[in-house]
Write a structure and sequence with these properties.
alpha+beta, 305 residues, 19% helix, 18% strand, globular, 7 strands, 7 helices, five-stranded antiparallel β-sheet
C-alpha cells in the first residue's frame, strides 16, 4: 500500500512537523563536519541529571504536533517508514496537552503538578522578542542555519506521588505562585509582574529565594529568555517503584543552546523543584527554516546549498 492507512478519513487537525539535525550528524560520517554551526555541540553535563542514553541524542529529530494524536503518530510513522534502510528510530516520546502558552488568546495551561505553566513565556506575536531570543541571525556562522532555531528537549520525570503528599503552601512556595489563580506570591492576578523584593507581614520574602519563578525570571538572568513549547507525558508505571512514569517533555527554542544551558545550570543547583523532578533524557537539534513550497525539503540549504 502507498500509505499505512491509520489516518485515512481523518482531517489534518493542524498537523505541523519540525525537523532538526543533532550534533552527531556532523561527526564526519557524511562529510558535513565543515558545515556544523559552532553553537551545535553536545550539551554539557548539567546539575542533578541522570540521563538515559537510550532516550537521548540522535542524528535527526522530528517533532510532529496535531490536535489528534493519531494524525501526529501517522506523520512520524510514515517518515520512519520512508527512511527505513537508511535511518533507524532511536527513541520516541508521546506528549499530550500543552505546558506553556505561546499566544495571547490562549489560557495558560497547567502541568501535571497542577500549576499554570508558561505565564511569562514569549508570545508568538512578539516579533521583537523572537528576533532577540529565538531566531538565529548572522551569528549562525553557517548560512543554512540563518532564520532557524535550536531545539532543546529534556525528558523531566516528575515524582507526582511525593508531590501530591505535600501541603498546598509548600507547593506554592516551590513555584512562587498561587496554585489556583497562577498569581505570583507577591501579587493577586496571574499576569501581575512578580515583585521579587516584596516581603510578607513577618518579614520573609513573599517569593522564596529558591522558588522556581525567581530563579527562571529574565529579570534575574540578565534578560535571558527562551521560547517554551513543552508537553506533558505519561508512560505507564515504573516497575522498580510502582509509581507513575510521568512528567514534562520540556521543549524550548532559542537562538543559542547556551541560553538553555545557563538557565538549567542555575535551576539544577538551586531550584526547590529539584526535590520532585529529575532530568532523565536530553537532546539538541539545529532546526533550519521551514520548507516554503514543494520544490524544497528540510535541510535543502545544508545538503545542497
Amino acid at each position: 500500500p502507498a500509505d499505512t492507512g491509520e489516518a485515512v478519513g481523518l482531517p489534518p487537525t493542524y498537523l505541523t512537523v519540525t525537523v532538526g539535525f543533532g550534533p552527531s550528524l556532523f561527526d564526519g560520517r557524511f562529510g558535513l563536519a565543515p558545515r556544523r554551526p559552532a553553537a551545535l555541540a553536545d550539551l554539557p553535563a548539567l546539575p542533578g541529571e541522570m540521563l538515559d542514553p537510550a532516550r537521548s541524542g540522535g542524528d535527526i529529530g522530528i517533532q510532529a504536533c496535531a490536535n489528534d494524536p493519531q494524525v501526529a503518530f501517522h506523520a512520524v510513522r510514515n517518515l520512519a517508514r520512508l527512511g527505513r534502510g537508511t535511518v533507524v528510530t532511536r527513541w520516541t516520546q508521546l506528549g499530550f496537552g500543552r505546558t506553556s502558552a505561546t499566544g495571547a488568546a490562549q489560557e495558560t495551561p497547567r502541568n501535571l503538578m497542577g500549576f499554570k505553566d508558561g505565564t511569562r513565556n514569549i508570545r508568538s506575536d512578539d516579533s521583537a522578542a523572537l528576533d532577540k531570543h529565538v531566531w538565529v541571525g548572522a551569528e549562525a556562522g553557517q548560512e543554512w542555519m540563518r532564520g532557524g532555531s535550536y531545539l532543546v528537549a529534556r525528558r523531566i520525570r516528575m515524582f507526582v506521588e511525593t508531590w501530591d503528599r505535600d501541603r498546598l503552601s509548600d507547593q506554592e512556595a516551590v513555584f512562587g505562585r498561587a496554585k489556583y489563580t497562577g498569581a505570583p506570591l507577591s501579587g493577586k492576578a496571574e499576569f501581575d509582574a512578580p515583585d521579587f523584593a516584596a516581603r510578607t507581614a513577618s518579614g520573609e520574602l513573599a517569593i522564596p529565594d529558591n522558588a522556581h519563578i525567581r530563579l527562571a525570571a529574565f529579570e534575574n538572568n540578565d534578560g535571558l529568555r527562551i521560547l517554551r513549547r513543552g508537553y506533558s507525558f505519561t508512560d505507564g508505571i515504573d516497575a522498580r517503584t510502582g509509581t507513575l512514569d510521568a512528567g514534562l517533555f520540556f521543549i524550548s527554542f532559542q537562538k543559542d543552546p547556551a541560553q538553555s544551558v545557563a538557565l538549567q545550570r542555575k535551576l539544577g543547583s538551586q531550584d526547590a523543584l529539584n526535590e520532585y523532578i529529575r532530568h532523565v533524557g536530553s537532546a539538541l537539534f539545529a532546526c533550519p527554516q521551514g520548507v516554503s513550497d514543494a520544490s524544497g525539503y528540510w535541510g535543502h540549504a545544508l545538503f545542497e546549498g
